[in-house]
């Protein structure tokens, strides 16, 4: 199928985030590097919550006829969801499981399903394929920040990105 590579890149994001977040010392999770910057825990929490929203959007587009997909204000979510005190291993495991399960759903679909649309409250019409692509890129963007923060905190890991 035309979308096999897209689905695989999406699914690969789970293990990639697990690797990227492994072994971060607790004292580094809450540390903010620079004014107004998110901590490592906040970046991880943002990645996970955004992705859970994305999988919900994809499932709505699959099941419903042109559903409304409501925007989320990421800064408000980071300020109000207590990411610094959320166990990283738990939320990263949730991310990996959700990516795996959503990829399983995507693999069952006929090719034409990837053209199905929803209407994002800010971005307008979006396709199922477009949502998956956006969240592959979203993970990659934040992985770059995460790898950089790890480097600055003295606990680097070799970068690994999901997009090609």
Distance between the termini: 18 Å
CATH topology: Four Helix Bundle (Hemerythrin (Met), subunit A)
Unreliable parts: none
- Which structural category do the helix and sheet elements fall into? mainly alpha
Give the CATH architecture: Up-down Bundle
Order of helices and strands: HHHEHHEEH
Topology, element by element:
Layout: H1 4-21, H2 26-29, H3 40-63, E1 68-69, H4 74-80, H5 88-107, E2 117-120, E3 124-127, H6 128-153
Parallel strand pairs: 1-2
Antiparallel strand pairs: 2-3
Helix pairs in contact: 1-5, 1-6, 3-5, 3-6
Q: What can you see in these coordinates?
A:
This protein is mainly alpha-helical. It has a single domain (4-153), classed as Up-down Bundle (Four Helix Bundle (Hemerythrin (Met), subunit A)), CATH 1.20.120.450. The chain is built from six helices and three strands; from the N terminus they run αααβααββα. The protein has helices at 4-21, 26-29, 40-63, 74-80, 88-107, 128-153; strands at 68-69, 117-120, 124-127. The protein has a three-stranded mixed sheet. A hairpin with a 3-residue loop joins β2 and β3. The protein starts with a helix and ends in an 11-residue tail after the last helix. The mean pLDDT is 93.
Brief overview:
This protein is mainly alpha-helical and 164 residues long. It is 60% helix and 6% strand.
Which features characterize this protein?
single chain, 164 residues, mainly alpha, Four Helix Bundle (Hemerythrin (Met), subunit A), three-stranded mixed β-sheet, 6 helices, 60% helix
């Amino acid at each position: 199928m035309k979308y096999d590579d897209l689905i695989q890149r999406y699914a690969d994001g789970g293990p990639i985030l697990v690797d990227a977040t492994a072994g971060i010392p607790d004292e580094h999770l809450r540390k903010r590097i620079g004014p107004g910057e998110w901590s490592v825990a906040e970046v991880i929490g943002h990645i996970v919550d955004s992705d859970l929203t994305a999988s919900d959007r994809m499932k709505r587009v699959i099941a419903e006829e042109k559903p409304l997909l409501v925007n989320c204000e990421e800064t408000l979510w980071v300020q109000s969801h207590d990411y610094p005190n959320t166990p990283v291993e738990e939320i990263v495991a949730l991310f990996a499981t959700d990516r795996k399960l959503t990829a399983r759903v995507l693999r069952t679909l006929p090719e034409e399903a990837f053209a199905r649309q929803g209407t994002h409250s800010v971005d307008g019409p979006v396709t199922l394929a477009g949502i998956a692509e956006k969240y592959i890129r979203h993970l990659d963007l934040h992985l770059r920040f995460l790898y950089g923060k790890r480097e600055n905190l003295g606990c680097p890991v070799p970068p690994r990105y999901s997009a090609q």
